[in-house]
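Researcher: Here's a chain I'd like modeled. Treat it as a single chain, no partners, no ligands.
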Amino acid sequence: MRRVTDSNRNISAILAFILIPISGFAMDVYVPSFPAMVHDLGTSVSDVRLTMTIFLISYGLSQLFVGSIIDSYGRYKLGLASLAAFIVTNLVIVSTRSIELIFVMRALQGFLISIIMVSKRSLFIDVFEGDKQKHYTSLLSVVWSAAPVIAPFLGGYLQHAFAWRANFYFLAIYAFVMLLLELRYSGETLPRTKPFHLGSIVNTYKKMITAPDFAYGIVILGLSYSMAIIFGMSAPFFIENVFHYSPVVTGYAALSSGIALLLGGMLSKSMIARNFMVKLTTANLLQAAFAVAMFVTASWFSSIYAIMFFVISLHFLMGFMYNIYFTYCLTRFPENAGVSGGITSGGGYIVTSFFSYLLANTLNIHNQQTFAISYMILIVLIGIMLLFLRAYLNKPKAVNTFKE
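Model: Modeled as a single isolated chain. Structure tokens:
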């Protein structure tokens, strides 16, 4: 079997960075098509939103256990098989009018994407060390943030020109090209396989989940990313149905919020040496200020421009916080990179899927005020988790275990 060595390490890393955004594309590229899917499939708004939630739940749950599988059986072959199967699921979606079958395919896609993502994230732990490893793992979330920037923007044009199925044709083509490149240039990165012993795997999971700094991080990541998902679930309907703009405008709105998220991640990367707790607390307080201002000013003026000003500000700070804690969690247990990466991302997505679907449907987000309320709820919950984290860090035994 082909392996990643010094001769192909750099090209394999480049391919991994190109492939990392596939999870964001699978999740977000069809967001501007939500209203069109409701009409074309003869289904409800909540059902179309559920296609995203099902993907998130499957993606999150799968990552909780696929890490131990790829740590035991390797990354490369499982990743290739998952890419091939992902192509098939997209072709099934474009050929059906059954929302129930789309539910099934989206659940399967969540599982397949989880294998791809955990495998590719583990590559940087497997083949790099020291500062270079820290640099690449920090860069991971920045690159991953490119998908929310590009995907809905591209999806808006695909919807406008070709209708909603074009989004899933795009996903199939993307996966096919990457499959060919992986076959040609990449390879296995796992230095040595670990026996699949259920008892030891359970102990590994227990060790990670019971580490307070790691567990708090998972919840904070999930609550933070809920902001982006709530926007994705709700924006197409108020932009296209309330303000009567086209799907292209939805794409531009998502592009703006995605760029903000990306820039926030880049800022946090440049401030990697600053105090961990100070950065998180300051960002959370700034988020609270923007969310309150968003709520208060809704009675004075409410337009797509006002909403997007606050969304961009909040998503910038969200990207800043997300990158800080994602980098920390990903490198917290380097001896079990697959498992820790899976739990970090998977646990975060489970939290995200629950809160985003609950708030989007309960609040019936359709204007600036309801958007502000959803953000305020999430920000308060993040603040509470940061208080728990601070209390843990103040314990003498915890201070030296927390890495910057």
